[in-house]
Known about the structure:
Blueprint lengths: L16 H13 L7 H11 L5 E5 L5 H9 L5 E6 L2 H10 L6 E5 L11 E6 L13 H4 E12 L8 E2 L2 E2 L1 H7 L4 E9 L2 E8 L2
Parallel strand pairs: 1-2, 1-4, 2-3, 4-5
Antiparallel strand pairs: 5-9, 6-7, 8-9
Amino acid sequence: MSVRGTDRYAGEADLPALVVKAVDLARRIGFTKSCRPEQGRLLSALASGARERIGETGTACGVGLAWLIAGRRRGVRVVSVERDRRLVELTSELFAGVPGVEIVHGDWTAVHSHGPFDLLVVDGGGNGKQGAAADPERLLTPGGSIVIDDFTPLTAWPPVHEGRPDGARLAWLEHPALLATEVRLAADLSTVIGTRRP
């Protein structure tokens, strides 16, 4: 979820049709925190490597989910979890005709019963920023990847957030079960990607 991420789609060309529909839904209901186009393109590229199952926490209006669907291989299932019942209803309607997609109502931990995943995007909880972090050994297949969005780019080591060491980012970058790195997507935006060690 990116602050004013929905606004970033103004003037964007060559977007997948389902992404356009999800952005339109976000605009229609006044949801401003959609994933940005830079994040979406990364998610689409990563989704292309999934063999069986992709997971996402924090469906919101489905913009990130639409990017994942745009990149996935035929037959790969996608499960997205959202705690807001109204958003679950709206996005379930939006994705109703898309095979292999399930939107689940619940907090981020509801994703546990649907894994393990080849790719897991933890945005709406489970990212370790405001609570317990997702366990990559439980939720990822060996060699599976986890994506944690919405960091400001790393400029020094150790990374700092609000004047203190950035514990959430460090937990992912130094997680013993992961090979992890940060990818800068824009001057003000980076993502941590970790791959579960075999």
